[in-house]
Write a structure and sequence with these properties.
3-stranded antiparallel sheet; alpha+beta; 4 helices; globular; about 50% helix; about 20% strand
Length: about 100
C-alpha cells in the first residue's frame, strides 16, 4: 500500500466570519404584481439572471416570500427602495 499524506485544511471560521454578518432582502407575495413584473424587477434591480429571477418569483408565489439578496446594508437598502418604488413588497432583516 502506498504512503498517503494528508494536510490539515485551513480554519473555516476565518473564512465565514465576513459572510455571517449582514442583511437579507426579502420580497413578499401579493395578489397585484405579475410574475413578469417581479422577474423584470429582480433582473434589473438585483442583477439576477432571468432563470434565478424566475425561481425566486415561484418561491415568492408558493411560499409567500423569498430572500432575493444578502449583503451589507449599504448594498441591500437601495435595492429594497427600488423594489418598493415598483410597488412590490420588500423588507430588510438583519442576519443573526
Amino acid at each position: 500500500m502506498a504512503n498517503q499524506t494528508f494536510s490539515t485544511p485551513a480554519p473555516v471560521a476565518d473564512i465565514l466570519t465576513e459572510t455571517d454578518a449582514g442583511y437579507s432582502l426579502t420580497v413578499w407575495n401579493d395578489d397585484i404584481n405579475t410574475f413578469d413584473w417581479v422577474i423584470e424587477t429582480l433582473v434589473e434591480v438585483c442583477a439576477h439572471s432571468p432563470e434565478q429571477a424566475e425561481q425566486c418569483s415561484l418561491l415568492i408565489h408558493y411560499k409567500g416570500k423569498c430572500i432575493v439578496k444578502k449583503g451589507e446594508l449599504h448594498v441591500v437598502q437601495p435595492m429594497c427602495e427600488a423594489i418598493l418604488d415598483r410597488h412590490i413588497n420588500a423588507t430588510i432583516d438583519a442576519l443573526v
